[in-house]
Amino acid sequence: MGPRLISSLGMSKTSVAAEPSLAAQLIAEFLGTMLILLFGNGVVAMVVLFGKGVPGEVVNGGFTNITLCWGVAVALAVYLTAKISGAHLNPAVTLAVAAFRGFPWKKVVPYIAAQVAGAFAGAAIVYWNYLPQFNKVDPARDHTAGVFTTFPAFPDTPQAGLLDQIIGTALLLLCIMAVTDARNSAPSNRIAPLLVGLTVVAVGMSFGSLHGYAINPARDFGPRLFTAVAGFKNNGLTDGTHQFWVPIAGPLIGGLIGVLLYDQGIARFLHEEDAE
């Protein structure tokens, strides 16, 4: 994790290098989020679409493969983008660092737009790659949108998924703040992205079933928008179920809570002289 990531996510407010242009930052956020979705949606496609002769049967490692791959994807995306954009890759991160870390508010909407666009592109490429198998397993496109986006385990009680998303994203931001705070024995820039990825794995394994642990509005809404455009009937956006709002609202709220918990429970007891 380079100086720009520590500057934008952690407690240090100074940058050791000239800031890249906004265009460069947006390209980085686009590519980083696209990378996450390429691996993330790709592994779900492998697990869901290639059953042993039974359409939709879950094989190829199941949920363990999914959680591990999403974590690796996030870690690699952080390595890819940290020194250019600060490796937000998530509107919940962007909103939280704007609220608590001095990230410019004028960049919030462009960052989020780049993240959503990158997620949309990643989903589209995965769909393009696996199109023959989609045609075989789900020719009507009425039950495989979950390859790309998340859905509630209890559709009639969305508050369960909302709480799940709030808790999961709060944990994500709490841990990100810890591993990027130079005053709190932060790991080296080479190791921190791995810990962020492992945090995603831990959240997925602990809070992954009630609403698919999106913990990232762009990761969910970009691919969901793609499923609507591509003609998937069960997309949660245009099918009348209105399920799309939970993995948007929950992570945005949870991200703010996570940083607030870190600041009030840990950071206020640390001192600048503790920074290495």
Order of helices and strands: HHHHHHHHHH
Architecture, CATH level 2? Up-down Bundle
Quickly give the structural class: mainly alpha
In angstroms, what separates the terminal alpha carbons? 15 Å
Radius of gyration: 18 Å
Spans with pLDDT under 50 lasting ≥5 residues?
1-8, 10-16
How many DSSP helices?
Answer: 10
Helical percentage: 55-70%
Q: Could you explain how this protein is built, in words?
A:
The protein is an all-alpha fold and 276 residues long. It has a single domain (3-274), classed as Glycerol uptake facilitator protein (Up-down Bundle), CATH 1.20.1080. The chain is 61% helix and 0% strand. The chain has ten helices and no strands. It has helices at residues 3-9, 22-49, 62-85, 91-100, 108-129, 131-137, 158-179, 192-206, 217-230, 246-265. α4 (91-100) runs antiparallel to α5 (108-129), α4 runs parallel beside α10 (246-265) and α7 (158-179) packs across α10. The longest helix is centred in the first third of the chain and has 28 residues, at 22-49. The radius of gyration is 18 Å and the shape is globular. The two termini are 15 Å apart. The model is unreliable at 1-8 and 10-16 (pLDDT under 50).
